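Hey all, quick one. A colleague (J.T.) asked me to put the guanosine-5'-monophosphate job into the tracker so the inputs and the C-alpha cells live in one place instead of scattered across chat threads. No bug as far as I know, just bookkeeping. Sequence used:
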Amino acid sequence: MAYDSNNIFAKILRGEIPCTKVAETEHSLAFEDINPQAPTHVLVVPKGAYVSQHDFADKASAEEVKDLWQCVHAAAEAKGVALTGYRSISNHGADSHPDVPHYHVHILGGRPLGRMVRSESP
Ligand code: 5GP
C-alpha cells in the first residue's frame, strides 16, 4: 500500500490540523486521540511517511525505531500511566480494522483495561 500524504496524521504533522501534544522527540510525535477509548488514549506517530507498523519495521532506520519507542516512553511518563500500567496497540492490515494509514501506536490506560483477548476468542 502506497503512503497517502493527505491522511489526517500527515496533516497534523505538517501543522495543518491542530492536536493536543503530549510528547515530542526528534523523529516522533505523541498527541491525544480525538475519540478516547480510555481515560488515557494517546497516539504516537513517526514523523516519517510509513503506512503501518509493518511498513515501519521494514523501512525505518534503527534511529527512527528507537526514537518512536522513546516517544512512547515519554508520553506514558507524561500521562502518569507508566506507574499504573498501560497497553500499546498498533493496527496493520484489513483484519485489524485501521482507520488512518500513517503508522501509530495507541497508548491506552488510566483504568483497568481487562484482558486483551476475550477467553472465548479462538
Ligand atoms: P486506527 O483505527 O487507525 O488504529 O486509529 C486511528 C485513531 O485516530 C482513532 O483512535 C481515532 O479516534 C484517531 N483520530 C482520527 N482522526 C483524528 C484527528 O483528527 N485527531 C486526533 N487527535 N485523532 C484522530
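Adding what we noticed when we looked at it: Residues 8, 17, 19, 31-35, 43, 91, 98-100 surround guanosine-5'-monophosphate (CB under 6 Å). The longest strand covers residues 40-46.
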